[in-house]
Amino acid sequence: MSEQKLEVFNVLNFLKNGYELEDILNEGKFGTFSSAQECIKYLVDEGYLEGDISSLASETEDNVELTAEEVSNKYTVAQLKDILRENGLKVSGKKQKLIERVLPVLNSNGEVESVETSLNFDDLKLTDKAKEFIKENEWMDLYMFALVAFRFEDYETYYNGSNLGSVETALKFCDEILSRALIANQFLVFIDALSAKAHVYAYDGDYESFLDYDLQRYILGLNPIVMDAQTLATYDVINEANIINLKNVTEKLDLGSLKKRFDRIWNKSRIHNIFVPKKACYKILQKAMAGADITELNFDIKDKYFNNKLGI
Question: What is the pLDDT of residue 7?
Fold first, then answer.
């Protein structure tokens, strides 16, 4: 039920922000609904959308048998003979005769044309109930922006038990995960939480803090708290999304010297288990942000810095 609630929020929130309903449904992934149409029906039945839905097409498509003319346009003589031969039928005669013999085969085998009618969403509008639902659940927007690495049900329970605002609750949630991950040596969870915390700051418009935490995510990505050969096999030392984030923020905003910030975050991180030395770590960052192939960089870093240290 929680997952469905999140899906409903996303559709309604996109509508509120000016997106076309048809575009939202075409792009959306509706895990708890069998189709976009079922989702729309639910939204109308629950009073979130209002308007005439009589024009909505039935989800079950009408199947129309192929006609002789359609078969003639669709298949060559050679193709028709192949179908007949596969079904143990005569292959002699002119094309019209071949079509007459092949029609029952095609239609009985489900070779039918699907007739799809378009969905008309023009008359469907957000109701006051939908606007109130969006307002009451604005925290879900932050979840989708920053916290999707973690189970929605877990965060929903955490949020409902908090008396803080949306951003403060999200930051506290990340801090608690970071603390537990450190104690349990769960490096992959730790790195996800670090990235999530950076994105919470970005959501709040605090790009200074975003850059700090995303830079720390990069540094610790190359110098993991704990790492074994099995984890390394599927681990991306450099995360491409992380590099894109760092590049976009530094290019679009004047946030001072990246090198000075890097030095400060390196010292703040208190790295005790160094895989990639500080100087090399920064040079690799420069290469990645300049457009170097991330896959090749990952391979080279693992080969040069990780494999020997892990005895691979």
Answer: 86
Which parts of the chain are beta strand (E)?
Answer: 49-50, 62-64, 113-115, 125-126
Torsion, Cα of 206, 207, 212, 214 (10° steps): 110
Q: What is the pLDDT of residues 110-163, one digit of tens each?
A: 554 443 344 556 678 899 999 999 999 999 999 999 999 999 999 999 999 999
> CA–CA separation, 254 vs 200, rounded Å?
20
Amino acid identity at 261: R
Tokens of 73: 């346009």
Phi-psi category of 35—alpha, beta or left, where left has phi over 0 and alpha has psi -120 to 50?
beta
pTM for this prediction: 0.74
pLDDT of 74 reads 82
Residue type, 104: P
Question: Residue 247 belongs to what H/E stretch?
Answer: helix 240-252
* Distance set, CA 276 to CA 218, 302, 305 (Å): 11, 10, 6
DSSP assigned state of 302: I
Q: In the block, which residue shows the tokens 């090399």?
A: 280
Tracing tokens 């005569």 back to the chain, one arrives at 90
Q: In 3D, which of 69, 177, 43 has the Cα closest to residue 121?
A: 43
